[in-house]
Design brief:
The protein is α/β, with parallel strands linked by helices. The chain folds into 2 domains: 111 residues, Alpha-Beta Plaits; 192 residues, Vaccinia Virus protein VP39 (Rossmann fold). It is built from 9 helices and 14 strands. The chain has a 7-stranded mixed β-sheet, with helices on both faces. The protein has a 4-stranded antiparallel β-sheet with strand order 2-3-1-4. α8 runs parallel beside α9. The chain is globular, with a radius of gyration of 19 Å. The protein starts with a strand and ends with a strand.
Length: 310
């Protein structure tokens, strides 16, 4: 399958804003190339054979954010939206904040190339996210999650995912029921099950995400506790849960808060992330309008996660 690779060349300080625009456009995954990361990885033992590069040739002044979109009838509209908000920047009026480039790639080529930058990561107090092609000696008995996200969002390294994982680690109680809305790679569903949830339902609009989630769930041997459904957010779920986690964009979270309230048990917890700081008040107001009590607002760089109680 052919995918459109949209590459944005920008300054490091624009990473979160550009990432937000790309996800808002419907990106099916991001890969961020930063000369500093390449230099750091190249200094690890046995890495020089792996990095067939000349450090002097790297672009030390910019980063390259690569996003991936299906090559379909919506692509021209998507590219127009990205150019308007990055090369023209109509959202802030600041002028150009990056250059946009287009390529076509095969799915297999993309799936292999980004693995260069995906390494085992420690999250929160007790969670280890490990690419399934790496090894990890789990002597300390950490909660180990094996991942191969493929073309789905959710490696465990993005700020919004980290914020969700940390919140799940705090608010998951034994034997509760959890909904994961916009499940992507299945990482949050898997974490919820491994943290003690007795039943998890993950929902996503993207068939690729459903396929990837199911594969990762089997790899982590938690398929007996997780069901993955293809559909529009909560329209395919007709029951209530004790905790709902949604790592999607702020506008969608704000729009769905009333539906979230209807799918939560009394005193249920809603963990909402994917919120760029400039949209934080939008989500807060929507939650308060629907009688949620905001318990915490946690931030990482330009992203926020709100934990609210029904």
């Amino acid at each position: 399958m052919k995918w459109a690779e949209i590459v944005v060349k920008t300054k490091r300080e624009n990473e979160d804003f550009v990432s937000h625009i790309l996800y808002e456009a419907g990106a099916q995954g991001l890969a961020i190339e930063d000369a500093r990361d390449i230099i750091e990885l190249s200094q690890e033992p046995d890495s020089w054979d792996f990095f067939d590069i000349n450090i002097k040739d790297l672009d030390h002044d910019n980063i390259y954010i690569k996003s991936y979109f299906p090559q379909d009838g919506k692509l021209d509209h998507v590219i127009k939206f990205i150019r308007e908000n990055i090369e023209i920047d109509s959202l802030t009026g600041k002028g150009e904040i990056g250059k946009v480039y287009e390529n076509l790639v095969d799915e297999d080529d993309w799936a292999e190339s980004w693995k260069t930058y995906y390494k085992t990561t420690s999250v929160g107090k007790n969670i280890i996210i490990k690419p399934n092609w790496e090894t990890y000696d789990n002597e300390e008995g950490k909660i180990l999650i094996d991942m191969d996200p493929g073309m789905a969002f959710g490696t465990g390294t993005h700020e919004t995912t980290i914020l969700c994982l940390e919140a799940l680690e705090t608010y998951i109680l034994p034997d509760i029921k959890v909904f994961d809305i916009g499940c992507g790679s299945g990482i949050l569903s898997i974490a919820a099950a491994k943290l003690g949830a007795s039943r998890v339902i993950g929902v996503d609009l993207d068939p690729t995400a459903i396929k990837v989630s199911e594969e990762n769930i089997k790899m982590n041997q938690v398929e007996d506790r997780i069901d993955i459904k293809l559909g529009n957010l909560l329209e395919v779920v007709d029951e209530k849960s004790d905790l709902i986690v949604a790592n999607i964009i702020a506008e969608v979270i704000a729009e769905m808060t009333s539906d979230i309230a209807n799918h939560l048990n009394e005193d249920g917890i809603f963990i909402a992330s994917g919120i760029i700081l400039s949209k934080l008040n939008l989500v807060r107001e929507a939650l308060e309008t629907n009688n949620f009590k905001i318990l915490e607002t946690n931030k990482m760089n330009e992203w926020a996660c709100i934990i609210a109680k029904k």
